[in-house]
Fold each of these.
Amino acid sequence: MIVEIGHFAVVAALVVALALGVVGHVSAVNGTWRSLAATLASCQLLLLACGFAVLVRAFFVSDFSVAYVAENSNILLPWYYRVSATWGAHEGSFLLWTLIMAVWTWAVSLGCSRLPDEIFGRVLGTMGLLNFGFVLFLLATSSPFERLLPGVPAEGADLNPLLQDFGLIVHPPLLYTGYVGFAVAFSFAIAALVSGRLDAAWARWSRPWTNVAWAFLTVGIALGSWWAYYELGWGGWWFWDPVENASFMPWLAGTALLHSLAVTEKRGAFKSWTALLAIAAFSLSLLGAFIVRSGVLTSVHAFAVDPERGLFVLALLALAVGGALTVYALRAPTITSRARYGGFSRELLLLVNNAILVVALAFVLHGTLYPLAHEAITGGEKTSVGAPYFNRGFVPLMCVLACFLALAPVARWKRTPLAILGNAGLMCAAALCLGLALPLVLGGAFKLGAAVAVALGLWIMFVHGADMWRRRDSATRGYLGMTLAHVGFAVSLIGIGATSEFSREVDARMAVGDSVSLNGVTYRFAALRRIEGPNYIAEQAEFITDGGVHLYPEKRRYPVREQVMTEAGIAAGFVRDLYIALGSPLPDGSWGVRIQDKPMVRWIWLGALMMAFGGVLAVMDPRYRRLNARARSRRERQNAGGLAAAGGARGYPPPAK
Amino acid sequence: MNTQRRNRLVATVFLLGGTAITAALVLTALEENVNLFYPPERVVNGDAPTGVTIRAGGMVVCGSVAHDASGLGVSFVLTDYQGSDFMVRHVGILPDLFREGQGILVTGQLDSGRVFRASEVLAKHDENYMPPEMAGIGIEAEACDPPDSTEPAFAS
């Protein structure tokens, strides 16, 4: 019965989302339904939260009469994995997606309560319509509330052991919060285009939302990478798998959007380009959902394949993107920009940033969709695009990006006095020397990739550090956020360079008592024992290095699914990770063992966390709160009939009609 | 030339430059890194080239997995259950879900003796997995008779 209540709540949420879509857009015109739209946003959240809570409860109490629970849970599963199993497969994870969409909508209805009716209504209305599409998709093709009656299974098919992990508890919710968060930027762009208010104020309103969504996506991607690193047992942290690319493409577009929004807010330039990027970022999120949930591309971790779902998502994608681009095509030509900037200016640097990011995005998109296009053209010939393809194009592009990024803090709006650049040049030279020397000292060999990465990373750090010192008394949170994010990029860059160039690995056949040396460390296979987990049996090996580090890789067998899983033994460190994974046991009782030495691999995720934190820090800048206050007073005047007088107030040019 | 025109010119130059760079990168990178997939039938009948990196797939024949007496070398036979079988040779560690009777993908090269030298062996994280490439061939995973002599450690 409770399950039916949850199902009913989601059906009600479908109706409410549609109502929000209509009411929102109407309130943009008449202004009186404004509070109704806000109420509907709260209702939508309440109903979807109710539906989601019901599903979580069904997992928690192991209600196997629900087909989705029976397929993805088991009575032996510990309670925290039973709860996280809710979003362990397609249906539940999409319910989570709609819930997060409702949370964002509600947050906008609260946080933007002071915006003009026109923008407020259209943003909420657009988000309502989007979530109407999502909930419809959920109910029509992938309801998690279907019952298995009669014939309730006694114990359930279990959650895929790969997903029984801390990474899965946190990775999808964070990632979806990022994906869906771009819907806010998207809706703001639509609202601004429709109402003809594509101006600096619009950029300022949508910037904090975009930052937060981007920060969540950054952490989500980093967590996914970390999870793949320790859970898949290969020690790789990025595979250019279509599903990874699906999350990375919105990130690239979102990163470009952040920077373009800065120009639009501060200088009133790049307006229509910014709107286009906002549309692109969310469209790519939808494309990612399509790739992951339709199974059209070969991926190691796609969801179960169902063509009907793929078709539905494709239709949603076409509607959202088609609609948005139509609005864009109708409105964009009316937008004019009067901003001027000179040869070497911050505007120009940010333009270069956008150009490089978009080129990188196009490159990744092409490689991801190439197998589809190839199959369609050749009539069924299957191909795959390997990681070397992506590295070939992406790595040089990021190096160029890093060069321009290093100049970011010294560049000024409009025109930069060339004298300022002298210091940056000096630091470049210093970084170059260190970049050439450090890898030699640390890694013992010259590797071009590592030298370039270290030099670029250090250069970025030097320039940002020096600039921060110069502005130590006047630094705003926005500035600190930017600095932190840029230094985070440098940290990731150095980590990637060092890991890629100096990682060592050896595959060996080892029995208890054997030793293997790698990169100056000797690993002794000291013992092998059998241990029992809550729902698995494992062979646990103990390796001891000559430095006294103990590692405990495991081979687990989950009897419910008869599935075998590698649990890597990792000695994590700031400078290097030691990593051991057990392969398969061999007929004579020895084991295939893969030992890896991965220098500075943690820097990759540390840098990503710094970037995300920087993004959030920038949102805390007081100017966004001042903005809210100003918008409120403006709205009060507007409501009192002072529209014409307020039209030319600072920061709010009259709508370009 | 006024500022607006110049800005437009700069933007256009960037756009064109970006497009050109993308196109150049894509073309050079694609040439070497696209791996065509060959089903067992085309590996056996000689369609698949030797000495070029390709992908192939098939079901692991029950009882065909043979580990070397020392080292990490292993060989096994992939089949489509329709008469096309070929031998795969791999040195290294097999993925967790590599099992006899399951569908797997291999990346590597055919040597002159038409043995597939796999540099990479892929199995998906799901026991009901069928590589999408093979879905069209119309074969299904089958269960081999356990316990299997090649995997003694987990006989429960």
Amino acid sequence: MSDWLTPEEWTAVRLSLIVATTAMLASLPLGLAVAWLLARGRFWGKSLLDAVIHLPLILPPVVTGYLLLIGFGRRGPIGQFLYDWFGIVLSFRWTGAALACAVMGFPLMVRAIRLSIEAIDRKLEDAAGTLGAGPFWVFLTVTLPLALPGILAGMILCFAKAMGEFGATITFVSNIPGETQTLPSAIYTFTQVPNGDAGAMRLTLISIAISVAALFASEFLARLVGRRIAVE
Amino acid sequence: MSAVIEVSVSHRLGAFALDAAFTSDGRLTALFGRSGSGKTSLVNVISGLIRPEDGRVVIDGRVIVDRAAGIFVPKHRRRIGYVFQEARLFPHLSVRQNLLYGRWFAPKAEDGGSKLDDVLGLLGIGHLLQRQPGALSGGEKQRVAIGRALLAKPRLLLMDEPLASLDEERKAEILPYIERLRDGFGIPIVYVSHSIAEVARLATHLVILDQGKVSMSGPTAELMSRPDVPILSASAEAGAILDARVLRHEPEHGLTILDTPAGPLQIARRNIPEGAALRVRILASDVMLSLKPLNGISALNILPGQVSAIGARHGDGGALEVRLDCNGAGLLARLTVKSAEQLRLAPGSAVYAVIKSVSIDTP
């Protein structure tokens, strides 16, 4: 199969998988925390937090990418801080692509997890409390396992979104082969050059295959978890 | 010595005001009242699910709430087991994992491992260990929930109408387990119920709640035999309870002779072992009164006693309750107002209580 794709195309596929997986895993802890806050918290500014998190869903991706560039670029306030203190550079690096993908996928992830946490019967959490479990253990042993289907769904959604992310990524980290050229960017590049149709089609097929596989994986996992959590 | 349970709290929930105080030394304290009288709110205060606006809760000498002193022990540090109306088993865990859930958090130092077997034996749930809660019947779920609460080594066990969602057959299946729990496990129980039959069978101490307030609190037998507690005495199920012991059997007649504080009683049942202790309930409507000892009557039980109190007539109805003192034990009889007048009953009147053997209720 390796002679079916050119090395450059392979690089794009591999990079996309790495970027999407990183985006998904890196945003999971924060996604869980934010989803829990939105589902259970009662604090001032909750609807504001909700709105900010949903912004990437509504804004044009290019705008999100540009805001990331302003904020996380080498001369941006956050980017400069990260570079000065930790030596981390995000702009025009694959890590920046992962950040852009994570930001774009975040609202989808939070939404799925939040809904599943809201659907949990709080009486079960109370019951765990009377059995001696403190808030942290209640979350770990009752809330988290019961929210698992939603968490898996959120992860898959975030991954799928990251695989397809284009606008914010190309704006923030450009389209550098081997560093920031993900599948969609590579397809876009192919469409811009003469005789690129065959390459675009190959990558498109791979894109479809990955998306369908992700969908099946999520269905399979959801069913596996659902069987364990028999409906009472 | 201080009481096992000492509660005195006030709390407002919307339009409902809870303002309840009671103390109890009972092995099983029943909170009894109509729905909406504040029973569940009160156990939620004891369990820590509600933080009362004011008041004190002391369990076994340990202050768990004292708003004036700024004490509020959170629910997971109280070690108060709670059996809810719906079992609330964790659906993602097996029965075994549900049962052992509280063990992770209970102090390890006290006693070792054998307790799981005791609980399985007590509740008869050993064969369910590998199942998921979704595959259990209502009665099984409730028994597992009781076991789960017990295995968290609670200092006190709260049971909020644990039988309410079950049909009669399932109730009858679980009641003996709760009796065994009351008599054999040494953990005080607070039991919420609106069923007189359940309270009569289980409770050693009775707390009656009415509109968020405790209207009466005392030993069950004493309250059950009073003619002036309308929620009990005016109900169709009014009746006194007596602690009895099986004296002997009369096999040729299929009778069992019981020894009770009020005198010997003959009941039409045979399957109770000799020497066994049990509780009998004598409904007020099953007791007849006579001024003279009777001959030539089919009823086998005739107990001499004295009228100790006469209740008020129910509204404009024609019935009232009379409390009898039979050798120190209380009995309740329901009569028509007319009979009470004709017999000229007054506190102190000597009477004979006539009780049909077949109508004596035993578990």
Amino acid sequence: MRKASHSSIAAFGACILGVTSVAIVVVALWTAKPVAAVVTGRVGERLIYPSPLEMLQSADGKQLFVLCNESDEVRVLDATTGAAMKSIQVGHVPRGFSLSPDGSRLFVTNSWDDTLSVIDTASLQVIATWHVGAEPSSVLEDHARRYLFVANRISNDVAVLNPQTGAEIKRLSAGRGASYMALSPDGRKLFVTHVYPNPSAYPKQPASEITVIDTQRAAVVDRMQLHSIAGVFHLAISEDGRLGVAAELHPKNLVPLAHLEHGGAFEDTLMLFGADVGNQTVEVPLDELERYAARPFGVAITPDKSRLYVSNSGSEIVTVIDLPRLLRYIHLHRAPFVQDLSASSNYVITRIHVGHDPRGLLVTRDGSKVMVANRLEDTISVIDTRTNRLSSTIQLAGPAKLSVLRYGEQTFYTARYSFQGQIGCANCHIDSTFDGLEWDLEPDGFGRDIVDNRLIEDLKGTEPYKWNGGNPNLPTECGPRTEKYFWRSANYDDLTLADLVTYMLSLPPRPNRWKLPGYELTPAQARGKVIFERTVDNFGNPIPLQNRCSYCHSGPKGTDQKSFDVGTRKPTDDMSRFDTPQLTNIALTAPYLHDGSAATLEEIWTVFNPDDKHGRTNDLTKDELNDLIEYLRTR
Amino acid sequence: MKNFLVTISLMAAGVCAVAAKPNIPAPVKVPQMPHYRFENFTTANGLPDDHVYSVLVDGDRIWAGTDNGLAVYEDHKWKTYTTKDGLAHRAVLSLALDKNTGDVWAGTMGGLSRISGGHIDTFTQLNSGLSNNVVYGVSVSGDEVWVATAAGGCRYNVRTEQWDLYNERNTPMEEIWVYGVSATPTKVYYAVWGSGVLEYDQRTKAWDRYDDPDGETQLVLFKDQGLIHEITSSVSYVDNVLWVSTYMGDSRYDGRYWHNFLTIDSGLPSNFTNLVKGVDANHAWFCTDRGLAYYDGKDWAVYRPSLTNGRPEMIVRDAEGHVTNIPVTTAPAHNYILGIDFQGNDIWVATAKGLSHGILQR
């Protein structure tokens, strides 16, 4: 295996942020072999890049379908030459796609407009657009063609549709942030992962699951529990059906993050399941000391089951695993393996450097090639499975210039800035959102000052940052603070930091799914709004200013940008005043309060507001509290 | 001569006998009511507790809500879910199956639990919009879970995660102690302890209320003119017919006419009925404190251990009031019956001292 050295970035040039082009040289020295030397200017204009996320091969093997996440299209390429054949416009922010069993139709989930595009693969035209659940993220039709399953990230479920009409038959509850699916080769079982952890008691290691659906009955028959896991992505099933593999994150969120140098933030792991591992779940690490495999995302098993390929989006590599050796290793050794940074050397063959933010993987039908979509580089890396080396790179047509926003996004998603390349911003802000975890961040002792991770959408006008309000602006939050406490290294140059901040401030709020189409309020929401804005309690007594919901949670973002003591300090907290969090998409971001101790919105007031310091609420009936929550969900 | 006289005497006696025949009661034709062989489950053969509040048939699986956990019988083995598995409370009072998804909902003394794929999620009055942790009844219709609690009714939409609460502030409910619920796509009924029956029309979203017309707690002055009593314990709405149990008799309402059932003029073994479950518009099972009763629209049958000697008994009462004891060798585990569900031709019965499987014999 290649010897790795830590990364360095050199940037030169000058610019006026967001306006002027600059010259910058980025030399990635993450390994002895440079990844890609990008010499280009960064421009302030907002450019739309293809951003390939997933790939599929047509039934006859002649076409390669590429799902382009930012340009809202499916590109059709010649599978042999990589030449562009056609572009098919779909809905907004497509996230997943799949072919019908006979290959005649291509289903695309459009995550921001909650639709499914149906493409006829003969005419390469969209023939139908169906409305589905909230933030549909992947889709699969069962072999018998009775059901079309759609994993919805925000509604935490799997919708079961009629594959001919798109009519929804039922919804099956899945894990929180249901996102990726795989069918067993016999088509009888559907396995579903989810990217946010399931609710668990505070403070506790996170828990996730692989939801198992019987495709004949379209019913959940099992939920394989994944202990200490938060963030499960693609999964693959071997052709003999005996082995399943899921890519996942194993956060160590209750260990102070200051211990990054001791491997104290995340383990990047795989979860194995199926008959090959005794029908249990076995977690195996991908990391090696000083060679982390940050953020495993895509997984693919070769048809002969000899190799397993894993895309590691943070490390910008594809990890190649010898599957027989892996199975032999776990049968000969005693679990748990996850803490053993020497384990992966027993089964990882090599780590192949690819482009920025590698995501979806595809093994060609003959097993001779593996392709990986480099989302933030608009390329597809082609790996020869005989040599496990890059054989070619397909460049997708798109803007030639590198924009400030794209560079900022690359900075957000890479792990190269942190100590040993362990983590990146996107580790805790999955797909630029949040992770549903509470973290022990500061080097002030185990279990002190636990803080909840917050959403980073629509950030402008919500400063200061951190729960203690200590960082007045994003350059402070993302610069010195992040470098000192998170990355444990100091290596952002000013322009990179400026681009990162520009990217983060550009993140829009996701569409609020609780708002009615015309933004009118339901009766319950309207009653809740009255409670939110009330100045007199149920007994006719005036509510002091600071005890009104609308006082601290004022303005369009729902924050007055000040700190208050709302009576939520715990014995492990060093302070009692906390920054007023914005209410943007508050329904999505459980747990709540500064330390994540409230598992639900209800608990903020039913458990943690005994003295009415967090708003006057103890006079409310249960009906009224429910109404208040219905209104908050619209924010 | 002597023989002649004897012959005449015998003939006369025969004539007299024939003449006397109309005065002997004709043999009663006993109605054919279902016979069951009961197999009983207790802690001795796998149940976590003998006190079984509720039972639910889920295909080949049987769920039993006991005083000490939720047990499921599958492949001839019992498995028990407890609070360690996430169950809201050890005492499981009510059960409902979401036939669409296969999820099971359990109402407990400490909240509402959903069992899905072997995993439990729990909703309480603190972590959710549930109005009260004491959940007496639960029923599923479409995406909505209807709940009867000690502080009113609730509706939880599994798709939108919205809770709607129903109580004295927004319905004609005087008391908020809600004992039972039966939800269908057209109507939803709540059995409100001390406040009769509440009806919700799913189409018009309007509430209506049914009360005891005489308002008497001990007397029935207006029989068959309305609900038999205000203290309702359960409701069952099937084939557009409402069955209601109370602690003072039971009722059937077809949307136009009420019919009341009391021990004095029916085969009910007791007026104290914990639960009624309709099979269809004309057939129903009554779970009383003195045995399990079946009504086929005309005749009655009661299954129980004898109240005097504990021996298994089956009592059939026809429409004319003729009562016949049918010899049987098995009976439900106890005569205090709390719940029932159907598995094809078989029945599963929750009792105060065990769960019983009634296997249809004929």
